[in-house]
Design a protein that fits this description.
heterodimer; A: 294 residues; mainly alpha; MetI-like fold; two-stranded antiparallel sheet; 14 helices; 2 strands; B: mainly alpha
Chain lengths: 294, 301
């Protein structure tokens, strides 16, 4: 805007710059430094070189277990959630009455899902004699040992996050609704069936949104804490001991800040590498229709 | 497949029959869709409905009655749960939650508006790199900065206060909101603002009297999301608060699982219901802002 100082914009964004430096940039660098130290909050940080990383790579069996559980959790939760969200959005996007009602109903769990109250609810409904087992036995099935069996415990956390598919679905639905209807008409005149239309028109047109949801859900899933902390406390036999739980305990129970920082950096590196792979691969599978990109 | 055939080769068939066939398939397809949607919706919402019913049940009934209507309704859970096993009642915990939410939401709204205005309407040295940093923080996992932040707040003497829970947000720390507002502002034409400037308003007045009113729907979304996220926030209070008298609801709930005698299930469920009430109320009063917020924030990324 005309005669204003070219620094005027900086005045407006100054809160952001201050916050960025104090609460993000400096801690980011500090955390990298701490990961090469031995620091227990009482004595000053002591430089220990690569010790923390060597320890976690070679000797720390808890880390190995925690890492494999985390990867299993993310690779199980994210695809299931995206597929389910897309499936429901696809069904909803069909000139249905009550579309708003269903959209709202499905969105409610997303609003509440992160809360401790819902984690508490999960403990109850998946308990040995909880709601889920009552329904299963009522239908003539065998009750399932959800939390006692290491093979099932992680899946209950996945189910909790699947239950929150609403926000991803709302984004998919908005994308589906923005697709030009004439494309479908053209396809149907050319004799394309439902599946062809879905795979060759719908899917390519919403790849930007799939990409967005994929990255966001992945970054979120890697940081899952509330679910396993409240529902299973990491157990049984560390079957739900996700890396954020391990980092939390190392840092705020054992006050081993150096080692916890190293763990955090490993988690960060994994997230970053996977995000970069997603971004790099996106040019091969994400389709941007010239004018749709802002 | 039938529909595909009907649409694919209409010329060989009597047109009327095809159309009737199409309508019939459409009706069947709609019925299937409704059935799937209703079934999924029921499975999604039943746990919540059950929770509400269970909070009025006796402890013995919680693990024996899958229905949601209590056989012997009781308010015991609410009365005992509200008292807690600590010297404080849930009134304290709700008040604490409010004391965190209020400055956090107001601070977020003000700082994010100013910052979004700066990014969307001005050119200044370093703009590109600063905007790139905004996107980077959007993707930066909190886990990396959490430990040094804790050390920083400890050195500032902020541990066991509410400050670490809201000050970063009041400095536009939630990149998602800034990003959402920038996207929203970019879509608004600048005519009004330019007219105001011609009439002699400075940028500050333009922001306050022209931009903020136009930005209102997006700002409401921002406040609502911040409200929900703060209600749900657990890890922040867990790390920074140590005195029970400062606990927000989320932490108090976890505390009541850990300390309540093993058989007081209904009091825990009752307090879980109360903990969900504020979010649910706000959501139903203002749901269109949520859906719009998430669609704009997500789609234009």
């Amino acid at each position: 805007m005309g005669g204003d100082s070219r620094y005027l914009g900086l005045v407006y964004i100054s809160p952001y710059v201050a916050g960025l430096l104090i609460f993000t940039a400096i801690p980011f660098v500090a955390s990298f430094y701490l990961s090469f130290t031995d620091y227990n909050l009482i004595n000053a940080p002591r430089w220990s070189g690569l010790d923390n990383y060597v320890e976690l790579a070679t000797r720390d069996r808890t880390f190995r277990k925690s890492l494999s559980v985390t990867l299993l959790y993310v690779f199980m939760t994210v695809p299931l959630k995206l597929a389910f969200a897309l499936f429901i959005a696809y069904i909803l996007n069909y000139r249905l009455k009550f579309i708003n009602f269903f959209r709202t109903a499905y969105y409610v769990p997303s609003i509440l899902g992160g809360s401790i109250a819902v984690a508490v609810l999960w403990r109850y409904i998946f308990a040995d004699q909880g709601l889920v087992n009552m329904v299963i036995t009522g239908l003539g099935g065998e009750p399932v040992n959800w939390f006692g069996d290491p093979n099932n415990a992680l899946f209950t956390i996945t189910l909790l996050r699947l239950w929150q598919f609403g926000s991803a679905m709302v984004i998919f639905l908005a994308a589906l609704q923005s697709i030009d209807k004439t494309l479908y008409e053209a396809a149907s005149i050319d004799g394309a069936g439902k599946w062809h239309t879905f795979f060759y028109i719908t899917l390519p047109l919403i790849t930007p949104v799939i990409f967005f949801n994929l990255v966001m859900q992945m970054v979120q899933a890697f940081q899952e804490f509330n679910g396993p902390y409240v529902i299973t406390a990491g157990g049984p036999l560390k079957a739900t001991y996700l890396l954020p739980l391990y980092i939390y305990e190392e840092a705020f129970h054992k006050f081993d800040m150096g080692y916890a920082s190293a763990l955090a950096w490993v988690l960060f590196a994994i997230i970053m590498v996977l995000t970069l792979i997603a971004f790099w691969s996106s040019r091969h599978w994400v389709y941007y229709a010239g004018d749709k990109r802002s | 497949m039938a529909e595909q055939a009907a649409i694919a080769s209409p010329r060989d068939v009597d047109i009327d029959r095809t159309l009737a066939e199409g309508r019939r398939i459409h009706a069947v397809s709609s019925a299937v869709r409704y059935a799937v949607l209703a079934a999924v919706g029921f499975i999604m919402l039943y746990p919540l409905i059950w929770l509400i019913g269970a909070s009025f049940k006796t402890n013995a009934e919680i693990f024996s009655n899958p229905g949601f209507i209590p056989l012997n309704p009781t308010l015991d859970g609410y009365i005992r749960g509200w008292q807690t096993s600590t010297p404080y009642t849930f009134a304290t915990f709700f008040w604490n939650t409010f004391l965190i939410i209020l400055p956090k939401t107001i601070g977020t709204a003000i700082s994010c508006t100013a910052v979004a205005y700066g990014f969307a309407r001005f050119d200044f040295p370093g703009k590109r790199i600063l905007f790139a940093s905004l996107i980077a923080t959007l993707l930066l996992p909190n886990v990396v900065t959490r430990i040094p932040q804790y050390l920083l707040f400890r050195d500032m003497g902020w541990l066991d206060t509410f400050l670490p829970l809201w000050v970063p947000s009041a400095l536009a720390g939630d990149a998602f909101f800034v990003f959402m507002l920038v996207q929203f502002l970019r879509a608004i034409p600048r005519d009004m603002e330019e007219a105001a400037r011609v009439d002699g308003a400075n940028t500050w007045q333009t922001l306050l009297f022209i931009v903020v009113p136009m930005l209102a729907p997006a700002l409401i979304s921002v406040c609502l999301f911040q409200f929900m996220w703060t209600m749900n926030d657990f890890l922040g209070p867990l790390i920074y608060l140590s005195s029970v008298d400062k606990y927000p609801v989320s932490l108090a709930l976890k505390l009541s699982i850990d300390t309540t005698e093993a058989f007081q299930w209904n009091s825990i469920l009752a307090m879980s219901v109360l903990a969900l009430v504020p979010s649910l109320t706000v959501f139903f009063l203002a749901q269109k802002y949520f859906i719009e917020g998430i669609s704009t924030g997500g789609l234009k990324g």
